[in-house]
Specification:
Length: about 425
């Protein structure tokens, strides 16, 4: 049936001979196996094996359009980041589900990229749970679907994206007890474990990266990409291991490859911007951060990096506005992870000579961590600029207690002592 066929960008299949659109008769297919969808899916797999991602993407879309129950095709599109968030939503809205399979629309909506507002994403999960309870109440299917490993892994991925690492780690820990070989869950579990300082469940590459043996880490990340060229975390790790040793050209090369292979993932673009910022190419960094923002407008890290680059470009008012955007996209209360961000905002207010606001944010940073030299020295300097020499001297001493040989604080302490006299 599909021997001489071609597919367009929207996943529509045409007869290669006469150019007519091929309509799939879903009712005429076996309920268990839709032959047309299976052939489209196999073509997608074949093109994927040939590294022809453009054709693979089109045939995967054709497969799931032919049969919305072809979960494997949707999984390939999502896991390989072949579609942007908007394209995923458009594809989902184009699928035609039978009445008894209507709940699948909600299920699929929980699997696609979670770049919407927190309330929108939470509503998706809640809607699915309600639909399942309403459709199959009284059967064992309720707990089966609500505890579906793929769905739970997606929820864990969402928690990680929102920087709710403890929630993420607790969810993935329980999930891995049920399914120790769930790849997606394992990846999110490892990422959350790293953020929380945990030392278990690390694959070899991540382990070497954590102990700063970057050459060894690269060796294992490279092996991972050789085995599976569409494995996005390995490409990101490969680039990060170069960036950690300030080998910018190699890091950029890995990030460019990742950006080409995974156009729906914002991380390669974000890390490229970070690398440009490290080399003080701030305008280029700003461009890449804006591209990352266009792909994922809900990641607080993107706005944080835009804030940092604005600060370095001495656009302090803009830096303050980007920080406000950062706060708006952090769904939970601030933790110690965000302490440097709060300190830098205080620096920006100080540069704008808004000393009262600067002091307020320095003090807020101290509620997150009391081990930052930058916080105490910035607070001392702000009091000094206000003419409050007593408070300035007190905080210079606190800063020097953390780092006795700090030249700036030592010199400014002497100046403050003279000014007070």
């Amino acid at each position: 049936m599909l021997g001489d066929a071609k597919v367009d960008e929207d996943g529509n299949v045409y007869d290669a001979k006469d150019g007519n659109l091929i309509y799939f008769d879903k009712d005429g297919e076996d309920r268990e196996i839709n032959i047309s969808s299976a052939i489209c899916f196999l073509r997608g797999k074949a093109y994927g094996a040939l590294q022809n991602r453009s054709q693979a993407r089109q045939w995967y879309k054709a497969a799931i359009k032919a049969d919305p129950l072809c979960y494997e095709a949707l999984e390939c599109l999502i896991e390989s980041h072949m579609l942007t968030s908007e394209e995923e939503s458009n594809l989902l809205s184009s699928l035609q589900f039978s009445p008894e399979d209507g709940w699948l629309s909600s299920f699929y909506s929980c699997l696609i990229k979670k770049y919407d507002k927190e309330s929108t994403v939470e509503a998706r999960f809640k809607k699915l749970e309600n639909e399942i309870s309403g459709c199959v109440s009284g059967s064992s299917m309720i707990s089966t679907l609500v505890n579906n490993t793929d769905l739970l892994a997606c929820k864990a991925e969402y928690y990680h994206q929102c920087c709710q690492y403890q929630k993420c780690f607790e969810l993935t820990s329980g999930l891995l007890e049920k399914d120790p070989f769930h790849l997606k869950c394992t990846l999110v579990h490892l990422a959350a474990a790293k953020e929380l300082g945990a030392l278990s469940w690390f694959p070899v590459g991540c382990y070497y990266y954590c102990i700063k043996k970057y050459a060894e880490a690269r060796r294992y990340f490279s092996k991972a990409t050789n085995i599976d060229g569409s494995f996005s975390p390995a490409w990101i790790g490969f680039g990060n291991s170069f960036a950690a040793q300030e080998e910018g050209d190699q890091a950029m090369s890995a990030y460019r490859t990742a950006a080409r292979l995974f156009p729906g993932c914002h991380l390669p673009t974000l890390y490229t911007g970070m690398e440009y910022m490290r080399t003080h190419s701030y305008k280029l960094a700003d461009q890449f951060f804006m591209q990352a923002k266009a792909i994922c407008p809900s990641d607080p890290l993107v706005y944080n990096e835009l804030r940092v680059v604005s600060y370095h470009m001495k656009e302090y008012g803009k830096a303050v506005r980007w920080f406000e955007k950062t706060l708006a996209h952090i769904p939970s209360v601030l933790t110690e992870i965000w302490e440097p961000t709060v300190v830098n905002l205080a620096h920006a207010f100080r540069k704008l000579r808004k000393y009262r606001e600067a002091i307020s944010y320095y003090e807020r940073a101290l509620t997150l961590s009391t081990k930052s030299l930058s916080t105490y020295s910035g607070l001392a300097y702000t009091y000094h600029l206000q003419g409050n020499f007593s408070a300035a001297i007190s905080h210079y001493h606190k800063a020097l207690w953390l780092k006795p040989d700090d030249q700036f604080c030592t010199e400014m302490l002497n100046v403050a002592l003279l000014d007070e006299c």
